[in-house]
Design a protein that fits this description.
single chain, alpha+beta, five-stranded antiparallel β-sheet, 5 strands
């Protein structure tokens, strides 16, 4: 399945949940196809963030809980794991590079997601960008990462920078 994986950061703990609600509404209106999504919110003072896979509009998530578990493990919990487990995850994470999830992605997201913030991870396609932008106009979000081409990413950033 072809899709765009994007990570949106919000400056509040609840921003990603609000955005997820908007995303569900857009999917119901068929303005975007959401294959899978997850949110991360990091309460101020908490030692680590909380994660939640969103329920796919089309039934079972395209990526599944194992994918999100691996991704969030790489992002937030790997330092707590033993060397053998870390080596196994290293092998798995190498295969994720094919979909744009490489060491640079991991480092970027780790740096951006801090206590008091939240993020929305979305695998989507067929977005009507102008209409999606209109619905997100009053929400403060920053595009942290995407697997789009440089030109596609530039256009996406331009639409949401207005």
């Amino acid at each position: 399945m072809a899709g765009t994986l994007t990570v949106w950061k919000f400056p509040t703990e609840t921003g990603a949940e609000t955005a997820a609600t908007t995303l569900r509404e857009l999917a119901q209106q068929r303005l975007v196809t959401v294959h899978d999504a997850a949110i991360v919110h990091w309460p101020t003072g908490a030692p680590k963030p909380k994660t939640q896979q969103l329920h796919s509009q089309a039934g079972a998530g395209a990526l599944g809980g194992a994918f999100w578990g691996l991704l969030f493990g790489l992002l937030f919990f790997v330092p707590l794991l033993g060397a053998a487990v870390g080596a196994g995850i290293g092998a798995l994470s190498a295969s994720l590079a094919d979909v744009g999830i490489d060491n640079a992605f991991i480092a970027r997201v780790k740096e951006q997601l801090t206590p008091g913030t939240s993020a929305l991870f979305v695998l989507s396609s067929d977005a009507a960008l102008d209409r999606v932008h209109d619905e997100f106009r009053h929400q403060t979000a920053e595009l942290v990462s995407t697997n789009l081409s440089h030109e596609q990413e530039r256009r996406l950033r331009a639409v949401f920078a207005e």
